Hints:
Residues 59-222 form the Dyp-type peroxidase N-terminal domain. By secondary structure, this protein is an alpha+beta fold.
Amino acid sequence: xxxxxxxxxxxxxxxxxxxxxxxxxxxxxxxxxxxxxxxxxxxxxxxxxxxxxxxxxxxxxxxxxxxxxxxxxxxxxxxxxxxxxxxxxxxxxxxxxxxxxxxxxxxxxxxxxxxxxxxxxxxxxxxxxxxxxxxxxxxxxxxxxxxxxxxxxxxxxxxxxxxxxxxxxxxxxxxxxxxxxxxxxxxxxxxxxxxxxxxxxxxxxxxxxxxxxxxxxxxxxxxxxxxxxxxxxxxxxxxxxxxxxxxxxxxxxxxxxxxxxxxxxxxxxxxxxxxxxxxxxxxxxxxxxxxxxxxxxxxxxxxxxxxxxxxxxxxxxxxxxxxxxxxxxxxxxxxxxxxxxxxxxxxxxxxxxxxxxxxxxxxxxxxxxxxxxxxxxxxxxxxxxxxxxxxxxxxxxxxxxxxxxxxxxxxxxxxxxxxxxxxxxxxxxxxxxxxxxxxxxxxxx
Length: 445
């Protein structure tokens, strides 16, 4: 697969979306940006600005132009009746799952159009149906994207319907996973350009879960306002340069499910989620030259160290004046080059977390600029939790596994990062008007 994407004007794309608001799946994979023209949809004959289409062959929040904020929440279906404590049968769990999908579909369809989420499943006298925290705000390009974890299918009696490539991710050699941030039977990805709108959406989703499912973990992230430019991660480097362009054959080949998947999964994809903690104090005291060698790209403009501009195809055979490869073989770019996926990641910065552990030194390789191991204990750095919520949408998760094994074995970046969370989900196809999420899972054989 070519590593160099075709660039195009984000502004012209948004204008196009505004003119064809009923179509889903249009978009660009690079980061959120300031917009002079927002998407518009019709709600009861009235135009609603900042609304992304909910219905379509694919779920929104994948090919959608990336929003500024992202929220991720994993749930597990209840195994027992919350009142009696009696274990639920497979049929009862499946019924609960279908009920939850119906409620989440209705909530998502309404919220993305700028409407209230609708009545609570079990209304209480005098209790408002909605939090009200987003009253007066437009939808801010809100999208809700739903995923199904590997354990779900057996739990609801549909093991034979599980997508072919959906399996738990292995634990890689450099992983330091915390169970609190791993796994999940259900995922809700909520993205938008206003964190208050996102907060309201999560409260509406969570409010439909009691008795049916319980929250397992949640994470939230952000992006800068980079306009048409590729967004930067907290290392200061551009993240997502090689993303495929939505609507092209390359994008379809890399992202959407193949023809050998179950019929109900046509139009779906897979999401690999990884919480990656960055040792920013160590990175910030490393020379700029070493940072660039670690990435294989220049920080200022994103160009590969072999020369050119950000979207120039890297030349891994090029040798510099010192007789060494311009792009080190153990640089991040060299190891992930050609992996077919769409990166749709978000930065996170939770500041000081008492439970966080320091990132162990993964080998000097010149990263310790003073020749000594960095000990940040006692200064607050050891418990500083910040990094990236890595999100990769792809047709075949085995491609990610292949890449991550290479990274775990040799990536220079291992000296600066720790993988603390890990999960994988099958993302069902989009919802047709009048349909519900994952309804096709229960149709046919």
